[in-house]
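Students often ask why we bother predicting the structure of a whole assembly rather than each chain alone. The short answer is interfaces. A chain on its own may look different once its partners are present, and contacts between molecules only exist in the joint model. In this exercise we take two input lines together and write out one structure for the complete complex. Read the inputs first and try to guess which parts will touch.
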Amino acid sequence: MMRGMSYSLVRLRSGPATGILRLAAVLLLCSTWGSPRVEPQARPAEYDVKAAYLLNFGKFIRVPANAPPREHFDICVIGTDPMGRVLDSLAAGEQVEGRPVRIRRVTNAADAATCDIAYLSASDSARIDSELAALRSSDVLTVSDAPNFLEHGGMIQFVLVAQRVRFSVNLNAVHRTHLVLSSELLRVALSVTGNAAAEVQR
Amino acid sequence: MVNLCVRLAVLLVACCVVAYSQVRTTPQGLHPRQLKSLSLAELGQIEVTTQSKEPTEVWDTAAPIYVLTGEDIRRSGVTNIPDALRLIPGVNVARVNGSRNWAVGIRGFADQFSKYVLVLIDGRSIYTPLFGGVLWTVDNVMMEDIDRIEVIRGPGGSIWGTNAVNGIINIITKSAADTHGTLVSAGGGSVDHGTGAIRHGAHSGAWDYRANAFGFARGPEYHMDNQPNYDWSRFGQAGFRLDRKRGSGEVTILGHAYWGKFGDAQTISTFAPQNTFTSYRSMNTSGGDVLGRWRKNLGQRADIYLQGWWWHEHRIGSNFGEDRDTFDADFLHRFWMGSRQQISWGAGARLSPSRISQTVPTQAFVPANKTDNILSAFLQDEIDIVPEKLVFTIGSKFERDTYTGFQLQPSARLLYTPTPHLSLWGSVSRAVRTPDRVDEDIDVNVFVTSPPPLWGRIRGNHDLHAERLRAYEGGGRALIHSRLYLDVAGFHNTYHDLVAQSAPSISVNPGPPYAPGTVLVDFNFVNGIGGATDGGEISPDWQAANWWRIRSGYSYLHIDLSDQRGFTDTNTLTSLHGSSPNSQAFLQSQIDISKKVQFDQVLRYVGALHAQQVPAYVTGDVRFGWSPGPHWQLSVAGQNLFQPHHAEFGINPPPAVLIKRGVYAKLVWTR
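Now the answer. The structure tokens for the assembled complex follow.
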């Protein structure tokens, strides 16, 4: 992943063979300042990628035509927010179907009934049943990384596979609402369960 | 001159621009904002670093569980598991010397043969029925493989079984899916003379696998004048792990083979005229294990779990040798009955044949060959009295073992979660420790002095009862602020029938093999001590800033044990009272100076151990970590920095070996 970055630095170092100490120092400084925010393993954080997924899902949800028009595309975080400022910075200036994206943080599911996407953190897994029950009659895409989220009736569950963030979809839960998920999203999912499709493993 | 400066400035700007642009065009965009432009498919291809497991699972446990993550361990700079355990509240750790066992206990009773803590590595118990404890020097895990160490203070009798009296330490390694790629690490220093590790993992079809090998050479600690430096260690281990996750089932297979040599000094008594001498014969060990585990999700929130393992140990030293095989099979089934009750039940069997090799006539086990077996079953019901707010768990383990027959270990726990940020719990449990081979079968003669010849003899007792504990515990966890997490626990443990040395019976001229005129003082083990211990632990975990995290803990322990009615003169009492500190504390601070540089510090305080003649001490460790490049990590750590050396535990033969200040450097390459 960082291969591109390190190769460019190697080229710079061996390039102009002028070998002035100051030049070498400059390059060294550059490699420290010029590199972006990175952990020792040079990988993005799990929750930054999940935040990006939430933004992305918006492009693949089809809201029913007779739905009341809303001014914003709301992505709501119910309870604990493990993503923080990254979610806000990713959402800044974004639009879904002409509606500007807005991040709302709410304390319980009842307040999320008017959202487009609702995210529940894994650390709140004790509340899943009550939160999902509150959202049952709303057209909200429910997403979580709580274990067994799909079995509780959630729609999209984040799964970590080989250090990569993937997601699984429960179509039964989606079909209970008026939401329709694009087949492009289903194609990329790790697994799709529900009586509309046999259990599929990717 | 100006020309040069201008050129340098332009170059500086230019290469920084190149660096940034390089990032933008890399599909694996590292900056969070770069993630915005990726498609769903691309997002699923990026390797991520995962957050620690903290409050999630810990929150819902009605027991004082503490999770030390692999990252906390890495940043503390420790090179072995017992040193990592110092960073867990309620765990007492003392290093004896460079090659002998550590004294590890939970809520007291720390000893080289500390018998009250059950230790598991990936579900395999490494508690040995030989002396009822763990040989930490031999049971090593590659530090880079550790995902987390979970410690439950207090009896976990209900699920985990016999001998988990004061607590359980569960060392969990990363799944093979989390260790893809290659890792090579090498280091060396003043105490840890050399360490090396290599690991490679990948996936093939539905299987993830890894193979690794690691080894270390440790040097002696600080000895007083004229004492030979006998406590060195050499160790090597190779292992593998396979994981497969398909549909609702998971299979894990892992195995290791190890070899070790540990320098030692033992006072050996002989019946022949010299009577006593110090042997510097090293302890040689080798062995291995294989474990297989299958878990299947049955749907309806039920699952089933089947595990089997085999562990072989071979050990020979100056005073005795042991060969032991342990075969274990366990089964667990969890399901929901109605919408409010989760039932767990299971059964297990363990068979452990062993053979003692006698190396000196004065130390024997009678009988030399013995097979320990344990049959167990457990049942637990977790009831949601008020869903998500009040949960009551009741259960028990039923065991039948070689020594003490049938044992019942019930426990009842209540967990109350009034708000999403606060949970309170309380429990009452009974736990039992069955006697080990030393308690039952040992026969040791120790020469004391001459003339006239005075000998001591310690013999096991085949009629021992199990030791019993009743524990009353309570505590709470609170997320006081999004950045401050607090865990508090308190306990009152009452003990009965703890194994102790009996009053001596003295005989004169007992006959051969003793020399004529010998005075023999004979002890055996009896169930002679009872009483209580009280105490508590408080551990705040504070994210002071985005780049600064502080973990800390304070533990308090009060021991009040006494001879039970009908028994007197048990020397064990003084040792029990004075071998665990009244209080101890630690503070671990992790600072991310920049994205590539880490500065970590640990401060540790341990109270005095009167019976071991060890005064209280405060010391600290420091670690600098630097990533010169994406695949490299360099760390330099200093340990036990406050004094050139300090005592932590007594030893036989005295005087105590002191633990010295040390420094080491380590380089890790990953791809």
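Check your guess against this: Chain A has seven helices and eleven strands.
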